[in-house]
Amino acid sequence: MLYFRDKENIIIIPELVDEVDIKWPIESGSLPELGQPETIRRNGETFHLPKIHVWNGSNVMVKTDFRNIVFYNKTDHKETKVYEAQENPNFIIYTLDIPLQNEDYQIHSPSGWIVDHKKKDEFKKEKIRSIRNIMLSKTDEFLLPDHPIDSETKERYMGFRQYLRNYTEKENWFSSEPLKFETWNGD
Q: Span 73-92, mean pLDDT?
C-alpha cells in the first residue's frame, strides 16, 4: 500500500494527502494499530495523548504524539525542550510537570516541583552579606583620623560598624536587611 509522510516523518493516509505541504511516498504493508492513547500525568492531572504512525526509514512505528508539548529540565526549570515526532522524550532529564510560578529556587521531586529552601536561603544570605559589606565600606571614611567628625558621631559609627559585623551571627539574619545608620538606634 502507498502512504505518504510529512517533513516530520508522520504517516498521512492517502485521503489527507492534499492537506500536507511536503510529502514523500512510502511503501508499506498495512499500518499497525494505533492502540489506546497514552495516559500522562502533568502536575497531578491525567490527560491522554494520541498515538501516531512514524516512518523510521525502514518501517512504520507507532509512537505517542509528544509534539508541541513543553518539557522542563528537572535540574533547571527554566530550560525547556519540545520533542520532534520521531524523538523519544527523555524522562530522566525532563518532566512534563509545569514548574511553580514566581519561584526561582525549585527542584523536581517524584511528587512534582518543590521549593529548594536550602538554595533559596543561600541566595538570601549572599545578598544580605553583600548589602552588609557595602554598608561597611561606605562607613570606612568616617573612622579615618583626619575625617572632620565629632567624637560622639565617630563612636556611633564604630558601634554601627560592630552591629554590621555581628549581624550575620543573629538567628534568621538573612530574612531582612541590616538597618541603615540613620535608623539604627545603637543596639
A: 89
